[in-house]
């Protein structure tokens, strides 16, 4: 275990990406089992893998070295709308939804999701 901890301490960006993926996957597991009340037979492992991928690629953002007030401002004004749109695009592409339908979903939902997130 110590070599793993040492590696993660030497590579904080990798650690943040890994943690973001694990948290996104864990959130999807909680959502499927706890909120949607699925049993193990109905559990969608591919969906969890998609959320982990999205967590690694999108949610491990590079705003680590900025002071907290600037980070919150940038996160809410710049990063949240951008990553929400990316989430819809990546998730749609991974579900093999046609791009024109993804585009309509983004135009319809991104503003609402960002507003609710505030």
From TrEMBL:
Q: Which residues cross the membrane?
A: 77-94
**Major place of residence:** membrane
GO CC, alphabetical: cytoplasm; membrane
Q: Any idea which UniProt keywords this protein has? A: Membrane, Transmembrane, Transmembrane helix
Topology of the protein relative to the lipid bilayer: Multi-pass membrane protein
- Where can this protein be found? Membrane
Give the UniProt family note.
Answer: Belongs to the peroxisomal membrane protein PXMP2/4 family.
Protein name, UniProt field? Uncharacterized protein
Species annotation:
Rozella allomycis (strain CSF55)
